[in-house]
Design goal:
The protein has two helices and six strands, in the order αββββββα. By secondary structure, it is of the alpha+beta class. The chain has a six-stranded antiparallel sheet.
């Protein structure tokens, strides 16, 4: 599956669990770069009813791991936000991104 299904989700806002949570998808095509080789900018977020983001998958800025202090670091722009912490995310495909996002959403709201 290519990027088209992910691009088709741009602008989607959906309430889930009776309105206790909502998700928002922002996705747009850009020229491929070293940091965004797939040519897709994205922000997939989960918010609670008080509008607090509790989960986010995006590639809007770089992510630097602080664990590798003296070794060469891979700079990735794909990452997740969970409880105000940032973790790297290995972008494989648009379909995998969507699947991984929903998997994390359902883990958090249960």
């Amino acid at each position: 599956m290519g990027a088209t299904p992910l691009l088709n989700l741009d602008g989607l806002t959906e309430f889930i669990e009776g309105g206790s949570y909502w998700v928002k998808f922002e996705v747009w095509k850009v020229d491929p770069t070293e940091h965004i080789p797939n040519g897709i900018r994205y922000s997939l977020t989960l918010h609670d009813r008080s509008n607090t983001r509790i989960l986010g998958f995006d590639n809007a800025h770089s992510y630097h791991s602080k664990k590798r202090r003296y070794k060469a670091q891979k700079i990735t722009w794909d990452h997740t936000h969970k409880s105000n912490k940032i973790f790297p995310y290995e972008f494989d495909s648009a379909s995998q991104l969507i699947e991984d996002f929903w998997k994390e959403v359902y883990k958090l709201i249960k």
